[in-house]
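User: what does the whole thing look like in 3D?
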Amino acid sequence: MTAERKRLLFLALAGLGLTVLMQAVFDDYLRTMACFVGIFIILAVSLNFTNGFAGLFSLGHPAFMAIGGYVAALLTFNPEMKPLFLPDLPEWLMALHLPFLPALLAGGAAAALTALPVGAAVLRLRGHYLAVATMGFLIIVQVLITNMEPYTRGPLGLNGLDTLTDLWWVYGSVLVTVYACWKIKFSSYGRMLQSVRENELAAACLGVNLFHARLAALVIGAFFAGVAGGLWGHLVTALTPVSFSLVLAFSIVVMVVVGGTGSITGSIIGAVIFSCITEFFRPLEENYSVYGVGEILMALILILILVYRPQGIFGSREPDWLTPKTNRC
Amino acid sequence: MKRLLVLLTLAAMVLGVSAAASAAEPIKIGALYGLTGGMSSIDTPSLNGAKLKAKLINKSGGLLGGRQVEILGVDTKTDQKASAMGAKKVLSEGIVAGIGYSDPAFVLPAAPLFQKQGIPFVTSGATLPTLPKMIGDCMFMTPFGDDDQSYAIADYTVKKLGAKKVAVWTDNSMDFTKTLSRFYKERIKKLGGTIVLEDFFMMGDKDFSAQIARLKSSGAEAVFVSSIPNEAGLTVKQIREAGLKLPIVSGDGFDTELITTVPGPALANDVFFATHTYREDTRPEVLDFIKEYKAEYGHDPENAFAALGFDAVGLIADAITRAGSAEPAAIKKALRTTKDFKAVTGTITYSRASGVPVKGVSVISVKGGKYKVEEVWYPEAK
Amino acid sequence: MDGAYLAQQILNGLILGSMYALVAVGFSMIYGIINLINFAHGDIVMIGAFSTLALLVVLGLPLWVVAPGVVGVGALCGLVIERAAFRPMRGAPQVTGFIASLGVSIMIQNLGILTVTAQPRNFTFPDYMLAAVSVFGFEIQMVNVCIMLAAPLLVVGLLFVVHRTRLGTAMRATAENLDVARLMGVNINRTIAATFALGSALAGAAGLMWGGKFGQIDPLMGFLPGLKAFVAAVIGGVGSIPGAILGGYVLGLAEVLFVGLLPPVYSSYRDAFVFGLLILILLVLPNGILGKSTEERA
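Assistant: Here's the predicted 3D structure for the full assembly of 1009 residues, as structure tokens:
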């Protein structure tokens, strides 16, 4: 095993150790906090896949989360309660009841499947046109969920979901997501995706099918976002259309950009910083009754980082001591 | 390693806070509200009202022989994830009860966590009548249910305004407004009226010219606008500007200064809405509340939600006094048996199986920009 | 559905479109010159609305003094934001500026909540503005007439500056090729600052109109117009001023007509329709209606 692989394995085990520690020592509040950090890591890393590797500025991630979350929720929902909460559900859905893992995967798959037609429609666009189109997709999904009452209970959303998400599930999902993205990044497939980002014309000249590459990036990113949505729903125990908003989309983009677009390590660090930061400022806000200061300070920090280190903390590279020798630039 | 340091620091902070807290004797009540974001115009006055009540209690000697009431106000930013986190945070700080929220969307992630720990949660402003059933016996509502307020205004529409053909406008983006419409239509039909037009809009809409044009040709004798305060003033203004004089009716979403200030006194006419018994009321509780609020914050209460926040804390304090203890289980039991509690927003009794309080609903009219309480409606089932 | 109803709806669409056009033009100008999507643009509309409230109601100044005052406030805000947040970031990748502008937007919104609280406030123009006048057989409020006249006037004024003054030439040159313009002796900093000032001035004016028309303002009101301006500019072709104007009117008409012409049950799908239309337009015309096709050269 190469030195880098050993270090990665060590990190994975250290993460496991940390999870054990947190499970034992932290109270419910801090454990939930840690779960959210984990979910944001999955979101940031999966967005990084779409945005960072393939250079697609997608703002539609929360929509994939929403799809994954609702599908997973409908599948894990207690069949006895279903008629009470969702009386107009079709028969086959009413009776269906799956354990957590298949439900999460189904949610991810649903999100990935949605990404196919969406990608087919919008991926020919570039830059901010793509950003606007994905934003439009996000809003369309929000409106649809709000209005499809028989399936989603509209604005009230689904509540009373079982608290199935815990540190173990989150850690497992984080591990799988990071592993998958890491492997892809350092494979020839990953290099092809990154070539699309670097210089489309050159990539096309070398025989890369731009459209397929982009679509793959979107679909894979969507899958992980869908899984994250399922985890989210079973942590908050409630899902409503308003949670999956443009503000959430920007938060994830911020995490990726600050960490360094294209860097998995960067996305992880970015996710940790930004999910913890608002909790950090909470005591300050409550003691002086100045609410909203946390947001302002966070925005300020963001701007400062962007001014003094615009490529983000890691740029698009991973730390040298973790990168296989053949891949270092 | 950076991540570990951050988390350890956080852990230390929380432990430190809880250690300090348990050393003193105060009675801690968690207050969860969306102080930033879309709900802030409703939730901030709620927290203000709650803090005011705590201050007044403390000034007159506290509860249970001198224990001070402490309100732990948490901003959950009109965001559900933050609501769940906020609930967990206050629950880990040794509270004996919690209050919060004016919309069920935020009660739903937070209240079940209270239920699991057996700590009562009293919502100040969420009016969904199925909340107690959905959450459990720790869930209490300060306001009336949407069914009650819709029935009140529906009765008024048919019996007092004499309107049999009614148009219904619903804000389709909020569960509150949809529920309100549902109950209203049900009641109108029961009273023999007909719904001649059903129209929709979304929160954030500014222009209602299309809906108004359809309203004009519908032959309706009254229009029920199910909206929240943000659209209340705009709809009244635009309907009247279009020359339509038919009565505009609504629920407590219309309880805001905006329905008189935005259209202006000339256009704010023939508007009727059901709301918490507070505005223009002359009961001593109400007058005292307005006086204290103005003294503390320098302006009149912004809307009825300030009074509701005040009442939520009042309900808990009353339960503590009657139970003679500040243990959550005792508070819960005492809350269940609340009878004829004189709140600012009406008299509260929890006697119905649904857990929704039996409370009077005020029907208020607006003429020439002036408010007047037309009647107080009571639910039949006692 | 008779002709009068349709005409009324089209009129409403034009009024709304005028305001969107104003905001979209400023937005497009800024994009055209430094490739920046300024997410804080909508919040300048909000500042414009609140300044109007302050000057008109609190200070009691007459409207003809308030209007230029608000435009000036808008311009000032644009200058401050440019100097503080965007100048240090010039040359960074596009996404950076976008995110930074989001940060600025969040800051402005929360500062607004901290200072004036989140309560919506009413906004009343003097009576003569609210009186209805008869134009071609339609009853329109004075304020709407003013919006429909003022918006094109302001835009014409802007186009005059852009095409007939030295500053305008400098702006166009910088937009086309920043480095060469600099070599030609154009003071880039001042030109960009001026662009921001002009675009934000228009946004401030839009704030005045928005407040006057709807009668209600709050610190979070800028988000939606900003977003719609973004969409309008993209529909028309980002970077093109005529495109932004066109996009603004298309968006305004589409919004009103969707709700007006479809049965009521679809009214709540309005936003979905608008964005669906956007995606459709972009699929057929990937650079917007008037955008220039950007061919990639080797």
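In plain terms: Chain C touches chain B at residues 5, 8-9, 12, 16, 110, 113, 117-124, 130, 141, 214-216, 218, 220, 224, 255-256, 259-260, 264-265, 267-268, 270-271 (CB under 8 Å). Residues 77 and 200 of chain C are 7 Å apart (CA to CA).
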